[in-house]
Design brief:
- The protein has 386 residues and is of the alpha/beta class.
- It is 39% helix and 17% strand.
- The chain contains 15 helices and 13 strands.
- The structure holds adenosine monophosphate.
């Protein structure tokens, strides 16, 4: 079982614990609390019946989800549980079997990711109670980026902060692991070269990879940096934050809410954080928000090409990267100087290779699958631990 516990949601997936790791079902508890809703579906997207039950806490959400799964598979026995954990700090470069001591270690990273880490850990605690016999495995969004060189890992603050862990960690690592693995399977020559993966969803970041290893990421110390996102601001002059605190009188909670929940595509457009709605809108503010989004992707892409010393492939993934032909076109068309371009028909289909044959940079879409990475790591870590 794979769990991804957020502040008010619990995403889960179950897989057969055999070599094929066949997906059996995915589910989501939305708006954990009195208004909670449970959705369950089979791998082909068909809705499965759900059991009634309370959904007010992460523990209740897990119990009710489990009851629904047991109705569909009466003999269901959970062999191991894998968890998405946003922050592994400097210590965790690989998935780890969670013990009480490890859980304490992971709590130390709460100040680094206060909006995500506590909920991830609540998911682990709920699963430990629900499945006391099953190994629990934590898989980290930061781990993939531990290979960054110093210059992509540091800020120009006094060195003591670097030593205390104030660094550019980078996130979305589970997605990058899946997509880079798929690229290596489909096009090993490209994967061995200079690659940028653009994970464009409600959260968005880009990762530069050399020979399959992450050398730079647009996300930094927090999941706020880099590209603008659905409701997050992306790269921001730190002077703006000082101004908000000292001149606008925002408390740190208000500033956090502004930067994480009211900014990005939503803040710029005043309409929506959802790219589909912005693309459908005729309002100039929607156009402005999409323009800013694609401009910042191009700017960061130039920076990543500089970090890599050139570019062999650009791979799109995430809800926007996989589905928006318009965003892909608006990213690539003005970057012919870097060798980028998409074939209009291939881009409209959104599958596989989108660049013209022989183009200097291969542009691709590879749908991401973070749950599968967690499932694989969980099976392997649980087996290795006996
Ligand atoms: P994710 O967080 O990866 O699930 O991605 C969510 C984002 O993908 C939202 O902004 C959606 O509007 C966007 N998205 C999903 N489907 C489409 C589509 N067909 N066209 C444009 N954006 C889409």
């Amino acid at each position: 079982m794979v769990l991804n516990a957020g502040s008010s949601s619990l995403k889960f997936a179950i897989y057969g614990a055999d070599a094929a790791l066949a997906p059996l079902a995915t589910g989501l508890v939305d708006r954990i609390g009195p208004e909670g809703r449970l959705h369950l579906q089979s791998p082909d997207g068909a809705a499965l019946p759900t059991a009634p039950g309370p959904l007010s806490t992460h523990g209740e959400a897990l119990e009710t989800a489990l009851e629904s799964l047991r109705r569909a598979w009466p003999a269901l026995s959970v062999a191991a549980v894998g968890h998405r954990v946003v922050h592994g700090g400097l210590a965790f470069e690989a998935p780890v079997r969670v013990t009480a001591a490890i859980l304490e270690d992971l709590r130390a990273f709460i100040p680094f990711a206060p909006l995500h880490q506590p909920h991830n850990l609540a998911g682990i605690e709920a699963a430990m109670l629900a499945f006391p016999e099953a190994p629990q495995v934590a898989c980290f969004d930061t781990a993939f980026h531990r290979s960054h060189p110093f210059v992509n890992d540091t800020f120009a603050l006094p060195r003591a902060y670097f030593d205390k862990g104030v660094r550019r960690y980078g996130f979305h690592g589970l997605s990058y692991e899946y997509v880079s693995g798929e690229l290596a399977r489909r096009a090993p020559d490209l994967a061995a070269g200079r690659v940028v993966i653009a994970h464009l969803g409600n959260g968005a970041s880009m990762c530069a990879l050399k020979g399959g290893a992450s050398v730079a990421s647009t996300m930094g110390f927090s999941a706020l940096d880099g590209l603008p996102m659905g409701t997050r601001c992306g790269q921001l002059d730190p002077g703006v934050v000082l101004y908000l605190l000292t001149e606008e009188g925002l408390s740190s909670e208000e500033a956090s809410d502004l930067l994480y929940r009211q900014s990005g595509l939503l803040g710029l457009s005043g309409i929506s954080n959802d790219m589909r709605e912005l693309e459908a809108s005729k309002a100039p503010e929607a156009r402005d928000a999409i323009d800013y989004f694609t401009f910042r992707i191009r700017r960061e892409l130039g920076a990543m090409a500089a970090a890599l010393g050139g570019l062999d492939a650009l791979v799109f993934c995430g809800g926007i990267g996989e589905n928006s032909a318009r965003v892909r076109e608006e990213v690539c068309a003005p970057m012919g100087w870097l060798g980028l371009g998409v074939d209009p028909a291939a881009n409209a289909s959104g599958a596989g290779i989108l660049s013209a044959p022989g183009a200097p940079v291969t542009v691709m879409v590879i749908p991401t699958n973070e749950e599968r990475v967690i499932a694989r790591a969980t099976r392997d870590t649980a087996r290795a631990a006996g």
